[in-house]
């Protein structure tokens, strides 16, 4: 299977939904993908099983505050410089590109990067959603040493980090990102296909396409999407309060939705750190990270990203289960509520919404 | 010639004088040098002419705020990790270590790093003094592309930067340094001996030893030092005001000296950014960067570093000419007063002090 330009709108829509508010710049990523496909041709989508064991898979993502990356045009030279550095280090070029993060722009833009490099895209990612920090990837949870990060910025600088662990990779990569103008392209863990097995979440590009297509031509897009995701509807209402600040390369803040229609009188607050992390109603948690919480336009069911939240928007909040990997002890330690500073024991969204 | 542990006190004293207040941690650097010599033996001091043209010279320095590095113990693993990365990139190990900055701890500590790596120390450096920023080195002024920086921190992380120019190398290295706890070991420009010719300041280790020995056994250490340096005495007095703050990896501030004895009634203010940059008396500049300005103890003639300035100290301020390289247009553009934000046209210290 290949990805052509007609697939990009659905892919973008699906990635936005899986982005849980984060991984901004989906529109910019889509334009880059379409432009690259027009110039270099369709991008083959391959599975791990298709690759030789020693083939190099390079997980790529843009790192930065969404309010910045939203405005950024990705240069063609950034993936090329990373590929050059990969070849310099490993003595052979990348065999495939993988999205580190299927949620948001980082799910779409790798199509452009793969096209520019003339390599296939792997049908997998490292999150099955979006997360704000570098070490919050399946490779880390799977216990692969976080021993190599390659970054390339729009100015043309290339930085290679050999961190001692995942937390240092986040700390150093974030510092480089901020110094580079709060946006950079990053390869985190260069993997052989053999090492990638069991350490990446497979099938997520196909999943994003599928989610994106769910609403196409639907008479009730919201219900079609909810059904395809297996999501619970937390509230339908309007945005009455949005508070955001960009600090240290992150967007942090809260958003409050007041119920309308059947939900009149209810009030849901979302805690944000690039992504939607916790949904609270009347002091009770309704869903929490690593489960997925996405704000969608009530009419079109298009995802509304953190940087696009606006007073008065008519929205619905959906929540659904994360990949099983994130519910393991190491998964929760890495990206559970406490990893984000919330003093909460993780409870799966199915249980929280069953009570509601 | 070799450097043995008996040379270290004189080397340290000389480096402190050439440090113009900066490059802190001379005592820590000396202890590290002595310990390393005891463990690994004397360190051969070589000249560029002694090395084959393709021998790799690795200029090393600690980067960070002196108030931090003062407290830091350099680990043995930091130079080893940089040497490993050099070998990984160039396919051969370093042939010699060079001090990037002869002034302060960065002039002494390379003795330890050379001993630990079992390679000679080159009798040269990249400044002939100390400067606060990464791109303020002779290699940059000589027009060598600032295309490689390797950093290694106490935690064990290694970061390789391929910057597009010297200003980016400073910006990215500084960000990594701050993220790594405001201290790291850094190789800036890995040079072949051929490329180093004309791009480094030769003879500066010998010079530092010579300056350090000038006061040994002297009846008037201050006069002996002034004479050896060819320095002007700007003022003798006591420190009445010291203002310092550590910000973004730098120490910035001012120090005021009020004259005593023959200088009673006079008052000199020093502007600091890690190093002493400008000396002002009655609104008139008496000396300015890149010329060297050092505060010394009036009695012992030992240099007083920025982080050791204390109210009431009896000090003398000396100023003398920098290496001719810094007086070229590119040298002044890189490290003249305007490079530090002072709206001053450079006037050599000889002219300024002749007027006085």
UniProtKB/TrEMBL annotation, chains A, B:
Give every S-Me-THD N-terminal domain span: 7-161
Question: What positions does the domain S-Me-THD-like C-terminal occupy?
Answer: 166-349
Q: What is this protein called?
A: DUF917 domain-containing protein
């Amino acid at each position: 299977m290949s990805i052509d330009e007609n697939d990009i709108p659905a892919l973008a829509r699906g990635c936005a939904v899986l982005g849980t508010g984060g991984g901004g710049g989906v529109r910019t990523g889509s334009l880059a993908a379409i432009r690259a496909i027009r110039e270099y041709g369709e991008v083959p989508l391959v599975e791990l099983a298709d690759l030789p064991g020693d083939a190099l898979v390079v997980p790529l993502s843009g790192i930065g505050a969404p309010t910045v990356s939203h405005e950024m045009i990705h240069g063609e030279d950034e993936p090329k410089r990373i590929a050059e550095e990969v070849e310099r280090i490993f003595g052979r070029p990348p065999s495939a590109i993988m999205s580190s993060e299927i949620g948001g722009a980082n799910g779409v833009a790798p199509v452009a990067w793969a096209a520019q490099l003339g390599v296939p895209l792997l049908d997998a990612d490292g999150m099955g959603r979006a997360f704000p920090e570098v070490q919050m990837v399946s490779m880390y949870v799977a216990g692969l040493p976080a021993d190599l990060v390659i970054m390339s910025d729009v100015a043309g600088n290339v930085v290679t980090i050999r961190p001692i662990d995942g937390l240092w990779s986040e700390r150093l990569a974030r510092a480089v990102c901020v110094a580079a103008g709060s946006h950079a392209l990053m390869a985190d863990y260069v993997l052989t296909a053999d090492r990638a097995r069991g350490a990446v979440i497979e099938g997520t590009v196909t999943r994003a396409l599928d989610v994106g297509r769910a609403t196409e031509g639907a008479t009730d897009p919201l219900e079609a999407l909810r059904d395809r995701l297996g999501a619970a509807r937390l509230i339908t209402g309007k945005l009455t309060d949005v508070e955001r600040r960009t600090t240290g390369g992150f967007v942090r803040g809260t958003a409050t939705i007041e119920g309308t229609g059947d939900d009149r009188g209810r009030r849901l607050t979302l805690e944000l750190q690039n992504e939607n992390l916790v949904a609270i109603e009347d002091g009770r948690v309704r869903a929490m990270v690593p489960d997925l919480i996405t704000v969608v336009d009530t009419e079109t069911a298009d995802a509304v990203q953190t940087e696009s939240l606006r007073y008065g928007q008519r929205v619905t909040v959906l929540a659904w289960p994360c990949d099983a990997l994130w519910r393991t002890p190491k998964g929760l330690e890495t990206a559970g509520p406490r990893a984000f500073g919330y003093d909460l024991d993780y409870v799966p969204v199915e249980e929280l919404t069953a009570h509601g």
